[in-house]
Write a structure and sequence with these properties.
Elements lengths: L9 E4 L19 E6 L15 E7 L9 E2 L8 E2 L12 E12 L2 E5 L7 E8 L2 H4 L30
Antiparallel strand pairs: 1-2, 1-8, 2-7, 3-6, 3-8, 4-5, 6-7
């Protein structure tokens, strides 16, 4: 097996000091502000990023321990395969969020629509480009989320994935 190592490029800060009551997706975090404190050594990597309205954050789910191949996700009452969910209790605890980029000042990045717990280690930043992820004529299917995704706006996190 190949050894994989990541290192944090910075820290995501938000108003959420605990998972309890936190939005479960950016759609439920509309307007919630946050900051990224990027490690100084990566400052040059921010060149040209301010031209984007949204960015993709890839981060380490540092409060998650262990994993389960079946979980009861926040938006359902029955167990689902982990890879058919966005639940944090994953074999590799990596999270992604698309957030709004407000402004950049030095190595501080101001963001909104933040659904991430305070102190989360940041692994990477990528520009969000909707045209890259799907074709206009794609027939999109969203599986078991089809009749549940609208609930993500109000649904809040609890501590179910910490044990």
């Amino acid at each position: 097996m190949t050894k994989i190592e990541f290192k944090s490029i910075g820290t995501i800060h938000s108003q959420f000091k605990d998972l309890e009551g936190m939005p479960i997706q950016p759609i439920g975090a509309r307007g919630i502000k946050g900051e990224i404190h990027l490690n100084y050594e990566y400052k040059e990597g921010l060149e040209d990023l301010e031209g984007f309205s949204h960015i993709i954050l890839i981060y380490y789910l540092h409060l998650s321990s262990g994993y389960s191949l079946e979980v009861k996700p926040f938006l359902d009452t029955e167990k689902r395969g982990i890879f058919a969910t966005r639940a944090p209790k994953r074999p590799n605890p990596i999270g992604i969020s698309v957030v709004r980029l407000e402004k950049i000042e030095g190595t501080k990045i101001y963001i909104s629509d933040v659904d991430i717990v305070d102190g989360t280690p940041l692994l990477d930043i990528k520009p969000y480009i909707p045209n890259f992820d799907k074709h206009d004529d794609d027939d999109i299917k969203i599986g078991w989320f089809e009749n549940k995704h609208h609930k993500a706006v109000e649904k809040k996190s609890d501590r179910r994935f910490l044990d």
